[in-house]
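Async update (no meeting this week)

Hi team, since we skipped the sync, here's where things stand on the single-chain job. The sequence we agreed to prioritize is pasted below, unchanged from the tracker. I ran it this morning and attached the output directly underneath so nobody has to dig for it. Comments welcome in thread, and please keep replies under the output.
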Amino acid sequence: MPDFHKLDTSMPVAPIALMVMDSAKELGELVNSHLVNFRHSLHDTPGNDPAFQGYVKDDYRVTYSNPRFGSGESKAQICESVRGKDVFILTDVMNHSMTYKMYGYENYYSPDDHYQDLKRVIAAINGKARRINIIMPFLYEGRQHNKNNRESLDAAVMFSELYNMGIGNFITFDAHDPRISNAAPISGFDNFMASPQFMKALISEIGDLIIDKEHLTVISPDEGALDRAVYFANVLNVDTGMFYKRRDYSKVVNGSNPIVAHEYLGSDIHGKDVIIIDDMISSGSSMIDTARQLKKKGAQRVFICTTFGLFTNGVEIFDEGYKNGDFDALITTNLIYQNPDYIKREYYHVADMSKFLATVIDFVNHDGSLSYVITPTETIHSLIEKYNSKSVKTEDLFN
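Output:
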């Protein structure tokens, strides 16, 4: 756990104003609850010091409205003053459950709609805040991270545009390619990983997991996720392997070259548990094929860990895969919208990121070094040591 007492000797930048966009309401409620708890119980603050006015509150959220006209046009209106505040705007550009009316028709929000609403809120703040920090867990258009021929580079345009609007810090998670920050190279850009939370969820949900080289292997489903898998395997002190995707470059289907086959590179996994780790699941067909091949190679159990479960074609393919024994558990975070129906699945588990996110906000508000927060290696090592020694109960590992 981060050392919050490091903050007791530093001044906050300004009072926190947590602006939770409608797209991230559930996550925002949890984050706010943790912030309230931190400031009420963990920090020693002088009661009458003007510098700490508004430091301890029962709710840090700021209300706003986002009305739409019948034509589909919209505006943002902030319902209370944020002058002089350290504003943190939390948005989920992948929330596909929201709708709005346009010419009488019901329209679902796209990532473009969420991004436009974010810019409206920044515009409504009107330069009056002490600082504006953006928390966008899923990086808008992050998969379009490089430019080939006559293509747009939307993520870079977004990043540059927001900094031109005056934001101070940009916080995201498991960016497909964090080098997108080069679009505004002298700006604040923080990219966090969910590795400790994956480990906590695995230990919590899989009671008989054995973490050593003889019983566990970490697999990357493709070349792009290899660094992530290698890091996780090294921290756990287990072997790693990968699949590479053979594609048909003669055609394009749904914006990409179709996958012909998945080829495995790695050591023998017969009789071992396997963790597949990746940044996101889109349709899921590639992930299920990877899991199926691992089972055919003799894997005892297959656990899928992904930061963002998009499930663009629904979860029926995972229902079928679980029924057929292709995998044994799926763990994803609550950083983006979670379909309530999906959570009911027996195999579906959620790694809660809200406490970690609240910790990040607390340290950023103090301009504290995030090295006290970004310590996944030490956190995982400590977690595994306690788990393997059986010195504490599983439910007490996360306190």
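Quick observations from my side:
The two ends are 8 Å apart (CA to CA).
The mean pLDDT is 86.
Reply here if anything looks off.
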